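Query structure, 631 tokens:
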């Protein structure tokens, strides 16, 4: 299907979702689907639940956040269970401003955006549909039309509790346009959209001298005063502040704690009483979730100020710490790189993992239990097995510092360092060592790092580097064994021929010249030594192998490379030891001979085909491992 066709289909689908009718029609809808009248908080909670919840060892993982936020399952579970869920049930927390507190670049804005975009989509579904009084700039809840003295009876009949009073504007419209007949008032389905300023608002403070409260609560429309005769006619007012527009949905309050007080007072009554004051009108009811975000130091100085007590008591603070799992941190970087213009640069395997190790180390706190290093803690948090530690230990470690993850290196720093290195050096390929180096160089001009911290971080760089050395060696060994499956078999056959001749006291035939020769003792020992078989034990070992071969033969099975675990290990080690020599030689000044070059090329090919390297990064890896082996 071409794109224009898709556009048309989409338009038609959207068209089908539209609904318009009288209040009487709307009440019929509510009879069947009372949830349509849910509060803003309840809608947000249902939206989160709607995407699915996975229960995993008495934890709840909300899939809603899963595509964008990684490694924050625990704080997010807490956010849902302690704020959204009780707020949806109309408990008191709903009357408080949700204040997300966390370190820089820890995902607070991402979380808020996720909620906003989620709501926009959710209002297009059946479960999340929202209806408002038609033509009302605040898309007021149609149920506000039900007179207060009849609401108890309404609740009895519909099972729906109505909160809030009809706004001055709609009160007037009811009289002038509908002659007071509420059942005739037109209702329409609305769809949240931040761009169209429906149901989603964002307030960000600017200069308090020039910024007007109108940004929050709307203002008089002077051009219409003449028409309506008075400033206190609600029709001469523009209900277009962020609080108005966000009615029924959510409002993001950016930099709230930096904001001038006069803006905050409006929030006091809005959150507590569910209404706010605009112009010269009676209070206006609003139903919306207010989310703000801040960092820890800003928050501390806010609560230290006595003047803020009233506001403080109307907030619920939810921590959004940094992720503490290496594997999840790697995913964060991958996501950020995919969103950037670096996505065509080759990033060698393990480069991001090693960066993530460094970052997580800066975020962890040293345990008071003597037996655990930061590195072990890092592996445990990432769900890896560490000898001597169990799941219970992990749980206890996590409890030790409730504020762990509120400081350390942020993901944006890492991505900025990687991208500036790539750009400065015009690289098309970057590896773990390049990344570590650029992280290290950047520490010098990192604005918020003290001298002691810098020392500590440099140490973490070398810890991460050591982890990389191990990984790099293993990787080359793995690639080598993979490329040399054939050689392993040949070496094995060769060894077995010699062992047979040795045990039977016969000679072996050179396959090329047919010449008779003594068994090759040097070859056999070079293999056996790999697994620590001593000179005295060699005869028993060789005989054991012959017995195994004949046992296989009796059963009609072929003895091969996989048939004897220790022998296989010995062969692999021998091959790798040979490779070490080749790697050492090729990376030292001497020029490698043709055979050595061929070997190296085969390993490079395996690294590229099987392990995600490109030729550049594979050669860099080999050279690096060579230098490690030469030490
Ligand atoms: N846990 C995480 N999972 C996924 N992405 C994350 C996570 N933490 C941070 N990020 C990514 O890091 C970048 C910065 O995050 P974001 O802007 O949401 O942070 P913030 O807490 O609002 O920061 P600031 O305090 O600077 O406003 C974003 O690209 C975001 O996607
Ligand atoms: Mg932010």
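Result returned for the query:
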């Amino acid at each position: 299907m071409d794109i224009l066709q898709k556009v048309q289909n989409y338009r038609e689908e959207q068209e089908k979702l539209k609904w318009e009718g009288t209040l009487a029609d709307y009440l019929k809808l509510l009879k069947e689907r009372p949830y349509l009248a849910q509060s803003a908080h309840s809608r947000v909670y249902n939206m989160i639940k709607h995407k699915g919840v996975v229960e995993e060892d008495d934890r709840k993982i909300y899939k809603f956040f899963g595509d964008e936020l990684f490694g924050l399952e625990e704080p997010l579970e807490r956010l849902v269970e302690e704020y959204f869920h009780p707020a949806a049930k109309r408990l008191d927390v709903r009357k408080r401003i949700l204040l997300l507190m966390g370190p820089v670049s820890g995902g607070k804005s991402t979380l808020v955006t996720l909620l906003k975009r989620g709501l926009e989509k959710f209002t297009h579904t059946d479960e999340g549909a929202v209806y408002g009084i038609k033509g009302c700039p605040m898309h007021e809840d149609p149920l506000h039309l039900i007179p207060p003295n009849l609401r108890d009876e309404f609740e009895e009949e519909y099972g729906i509790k109505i909160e809030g009073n009809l706004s001055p504007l709609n009160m007037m419209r009811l009289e002038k346009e509908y002659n007071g007949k509420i059942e005739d008032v037109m209702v329409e389905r609305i769809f949240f959209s931040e761009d169209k300023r429906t149901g989603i608002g964002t307030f960000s403070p600017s200069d308090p001298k020039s910024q007007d409260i109108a940004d929050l609560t709307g203002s008089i429309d002077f051009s219409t005063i003449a028409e309506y005769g008075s400033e206190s006619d609600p029709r001469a007012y523009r209900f277009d502040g962020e609080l108005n527009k966000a009615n029924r949905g959510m409002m993001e309050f950016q930099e709230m704690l930096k904001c001038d007080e006069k803006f905050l007072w409006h929030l006091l009554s809005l959150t507590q009483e569910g209404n706010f004051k605009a112009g010269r009108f009676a209070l206006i009811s609003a139903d919306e979730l207010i989310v703000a975000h801040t960092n820890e130091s800003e928050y501390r100085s806010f609560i230290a100020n006595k003047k803020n007590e009233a506001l403080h008591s109307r907030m619920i603070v939810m921590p959004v710490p940094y992720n503490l799992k290496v594997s999840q941190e790697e995913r964060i970087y991958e996501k950020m790189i995919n969103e950037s213009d670096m996505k065509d640069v080759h990033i060698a395997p393990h480069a991001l993992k090693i960066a993530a190790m460094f970052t997580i180390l800066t975020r962890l706190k040293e345990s008071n239990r003597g037996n655990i290093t930061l590195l072990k803690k890092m592996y445990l948090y990432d769900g890896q097995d560490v000898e001597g530690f169990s799941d219970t230990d992990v749980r206890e470690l996590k409890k030790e510092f409730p504020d762990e993850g509120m400081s350390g290196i942020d993901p944006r720093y890492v991505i900025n360092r990687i991208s500036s290195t790539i750009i400065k050096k015009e690289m098309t390929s970057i590896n773990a060592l390049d990344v570590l180096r650029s992280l290290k160089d950047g520490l010098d001009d990192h604005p918020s790092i003290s001298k002691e911290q810098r020392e500590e971080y440099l140490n973490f760089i070398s810890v991460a580097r050591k982890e990389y050395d191990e990984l790099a060696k293993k990787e080359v060994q793995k690639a080598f064994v993979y490329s040399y499956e054939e050689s392993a078999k040949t070496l094995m056959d060769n060894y077995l021929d010699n062992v047979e001749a040795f045990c039977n006291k016969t000679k072996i035939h050179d396959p090329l010249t047919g010449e008779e020769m003594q068994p090759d003792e040097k070859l056999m020992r070079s293999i056996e030594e790999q697994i620590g078989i001593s000179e005295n034990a060699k005869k028993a070992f060789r005989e054991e192998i012959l017995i195994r071969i004949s046992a296989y033969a009796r059963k009609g099975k072929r003895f091969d490379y996989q048939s004897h675990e220790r022998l296989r290990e010995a062969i692999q080690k021998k091959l790798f030891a040979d490779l070490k020599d080749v790697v050492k030689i090729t990376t030292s000044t001497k020029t490698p001979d043709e055979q050595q070059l061929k070997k190296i090329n085969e390993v490079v090919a395996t690294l590229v085909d099987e392990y995600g390297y490109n030729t550049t990064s594979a050669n860099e890896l080999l050279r690096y491992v060579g230098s490690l082996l030469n030490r």
